[in-house]
Amino acid sequence: MADERTFRERLIDELNYQGISNKDFARRVGISSGTLGMYLYRGSIPAADVAVRMAQVLNTSTEYLVLGTEGRGFAAGGTRSDWQKKEIATIAGSLGEKQLEHFLEIARAYKSALSPE
C-alpha cells in the first residue's frame, strides 16, 4: 500500500525521526544545503542517484522515499526499522493534539536517555 505523503514529507519525517540535521544530511549525501532545501521546501524530486544516496544514509529504500511504497529493496537491516517506523507513524496519526504532545515528550526523553552526552 502506498504512503499518501509526498517525497518532501517522507524526507522531513525521516530526518526528524532520526535526529539528523539538514546540514549533516546534505554533507553525508554529497549535496549542498541549497540543493537539499529544494527537496525540503520546494518539493522538488532528486535525480535517481541522489535519491539512492539519501535512502542509504537514512537506511531505508529509495522506493519508500520517492513513492511511499514498501518494496523489496530495503537497505541492509532496514526492513525491521521501517516496519517499526510505520507502526509509530500509525500510532502517532491516531492521537489527538494533546496526546501527540505527550507521545513526543516521551519519545524525546527516551532518545535523550539513550544518547551519550
Structural class: mainly alpha
Q: Could you give the count of β-strands?
A: 0
SSE topology string: HHHHHHH
> How helical, in percent, are the residues?
55-70%
Largest sheet: none
Silhouette:
globular
Q: What count of helical segments does DSSP give?
A: 7
- The averaged pLDDT comes out at 82
Alpha carbon gap, first and last residue: 40 Å
* Low-confidence runs: 71-79
Q: Please compute the radius of gyration using only Cα atoms.
A: 15 Å
Strand content: under 5%
Describe it:
By secondary structure, the chain is an all-alpha fold. The chain is built from 7 helices and no strands. It has helices at residues 7-18, 22-29, 33-41, 48-58, 62-67, 78-93, 97-114. Helix 2 packs across helix 3. It is globular and about 40 Å long. Residues 71-79 have low confidence and may be disordered.
What labels would you give this structure?
117 residues, mainly alpha, 7 helices
Brief write-up:
With 117 residues, the protein is mainly alpha-helical. The chain is built from seven helices and no strands. Helix 2 crosses helix 3 (33-41).
Question: How is the secondary structure organized here?
Answer:
Layout: H1 7-18, H2 22-29, H3 33-41, H4 48-58, H5 62-67, H6 78-93, H7 97-114
